[in-house]
Every structure is written in C-alpha cells, then in structure tokens.
Amino acid sequence: MVLAKAMDFAGRFLIAALFLLAAANKFVNTDAILHHMNVQHVPDYLLPLVVVLEVCAGLAILIGWQLRWAALALAAFCVATAVLFHMDFSQPVERTMFAKDLAIAGGLLILSATAFTNRR
After folding, report:
1. Under a CB-based contact definition with an 8 Å cutoff, are residues 75 and 85 in contact?
2. Which structural domain range is residue 55 located in?
3. Is 90 exceeded by the pLDDT of residue 117?
C-alpha cells in the first residue's frame, strides 16, 4: 500500500512537472512561442489560457485535487497540440512529437479514469 501511494505520487509529480516546466518555458520564451503559434495560425490570445491551464491543471495533478478533470483537460490539450503543431509527418521529429503528445494524452486518460474509479 505504501509503495502504491509512493508510485502514485511519483507519477503525478512527473506528469505535473512536464506541464509546469512547459508553462515556465512559455513565460520565459514568449516571443518564440508566439512566433511558432503564428506560423501554425493559432491565435495569440490562446497563449495566456494555455499557461493558466498548464499551471492550474499541473498543480491539481500534483496535489491530487480534481484529478479526474485536470487530467482530462490536459489530455484534450495534448491531443489538440499534436493536431495543431505536429502534423508534418515528413519530418521525423514532428512524427515523434505527435506520438509523444498522444502517448501523454493516453496516460492522462488512464489517470482520469482511475481517478473516476477511485472518486478523487
């Protein structure tokens, strides 16, 4: 039981760290991020919303609060990111990024489903 709780926290910590670090990167490298968004025809006004989502949902996952909804929101975000930014399959890096975004979404869906089952 103790090992399972430690593994649960470690998993949530690693997932949360991904999104919290991504939000920090967007804050530090705003101009580069906005340029990348513009190239992909994604509106600038979405950047602050993305940062808020990554920080709030990342922290929620870290502490286990509203876990099912936070994981579900980030899963949807990961799918959207894959589709909006990583569809150039002629580039090996883009194929890898697409697959990673979908894999992260899959893990988040499992986390959400588990949270629904466990009522957290």
Report:
1. no
2. 2-118
3. no
